[in-house]
Amino acid sequence: MCMSYGCYMSTTRAIRGAERRAEILRAALEVIAERGYRGASLGAVAERVGLTQQGLLHYFPTKEAMLVAVLEERDQWDAMPDSHWRLDLLASLVDYNSMRAGIVQTFSALLGESVTEEHPARDFFTGRYENVRANMVGILRSEYGERLPSGLTPERAAPLLVAVMDGLQYQWLLAPEKVDMAGAFRDFLTLLGEKES
Question: What mean pLDDT value characterizes the chain?
C-alpha cells in the first residue's frame, strides 16, 4: 500500500479522471439519443460536460473512440444475458428496458446506423450479436434440451429469440402506447413452450 503524498495525488487524479470519463460517456449517450451518431458532435458532448472540444479529446481522441466506449459502457450498465440465465430472467430484462426508454432509444439508433459499411460501431455490434446468439443457445438448451417443443434446435431458435427482443424494442419506441413490449415478449415465450407464471 502506497502511503506517500505522490501516490495519494496519483490515485486521486486517476479517480477524478475515471469520474470525468464516466460523466462524458453519460453525456455522449444523451447526445447520441437526441441526434443520432452522425448528428452528434464532439463539441456538443464537450459543451454538455463543461469542457472544450480540446479538453474532451484528452479523454477520447476521436468520435469513433468515444462511440465504442459508450457502447462498451452501456453493456456494463446493462445485465448482458449470458448462457446461465433462464428464460424468465430474459422477461425481467425486457421489463427493465421498458423503464429506460432513453438507453433503449440510443442503442436502437446506433444499431440501425451500424449496418452501413464502415460504420465505427459495426464490429462492436457484429461481435455483440455473435455473443448474444451463443448465450441464447445456452439459455434455450438449459430450458428445453436439444429440441424445443416446436422441434427447432436451440441454434435455430436463438436468432428468432434475439430478433423478437430487438424488434419489440423498435415497435415500442415508435408506439409505446400501443405496444406492450414486456407483455408481447411473454406471449412469445408462451409460443416457445414456456409456461406462464
Answer: 85
178 versus 89: which is more confidently predicted? 178
Positive or negative CA dihedral for 160, 113, 128, 86? negative
Taking the C-alpha atoms of residue 14 and residue 18, their distance in angstroms, rounded to an integer, is: 6
- Where are any strands of DSSP class E within 52-182? none
Neighbours of 32 (CB within 10 A): 25
124: cell is: 462492436
Dihedral sign (CA 48, 52, 53, 57)? negative
Cα end-to-end distance, the chain, whole Å: 51
- At 117, the amino acid letter reads E
pLDDT over 90 at 121, yes or no: no
117: left (phi over 0), alpha (psi -120 to 50) or beta: beta
pTM of the entire structure? 0.73
Q: What percent of the chain lies above the pLDDT cut of 70?
A: 87
